[in-house]
Amino acid sequence: MPHRKVKDLARLIVALFFDDTCMIIMDVFLNEKNNFIIRADVLADELHLSSKQVNKALNKLQKDMILDSYESAAKRGENLGKGVTYWFNHRLFIDAVKYKLQKMQDLLNSNVGEDSFDGTLYVCPKCQRTSNALDAQKHIDMETFEFICPRCQIPLQEPAPTEKEEDQSLEFQEKQRDFHALIDPISQMLQDIDELGRAVDEDQ
């Protein structure tokens, strides 16, 4: 059974990077009465949501390695057919968060370094909506690590760099602090979970 800190981390990750439907679904999985496992068809009935809506959220959560799944028996009318059971694989989840957190940090260091994190606006080539680097990272694709337009669901483009000014350097520092304010709580929770794991190993 995952520790409370692991469940808290899962709720935080989903709240930061996923939509409301995913948040509702994760609350169900993290409820101990469900033993962190539930069939997709049962989940749709329990939440009074359409199967399409539930399956879309489940596929996204699985794609980002927050949930795992396997085929199982599912009752459909009076027939017994194949269904899919999803479960919260907390060990896979922790490893995935560590990996993606490092990739996000690498992305910040390589593409948005101190000399370029200057208020540059990322532009959607379709709707022309602009986002600064801080806003853009809130809509990052956790698989490709590209910034995605929340409206058009396509990668944002970075315009050619403009001449740097002194006030832009100050703006970079502020945005970098905001970025770490978002990421640091996740890093701290991972450290706490690692310490719990080491304590358990020492007791055995």
Automatic annotation (TrEMBL):
InterPro entries: TFE, TFIIE_asu, TFIIEa/SarR/Rpc3_HTH_dom, Znf_RING/FYVE/PHD. SUPFAM superfamilies: Zinc beta-ribbon. Residues 20-170 form the Transcription initiation factor IIE subunit alpha N-terminal domain. Pfam families: TFIIE_alpha. It comes from the Eukaryota. This is Transcription initiation factor TFIIE subunit alpha. It comes from Blattamonas nauphoetae.
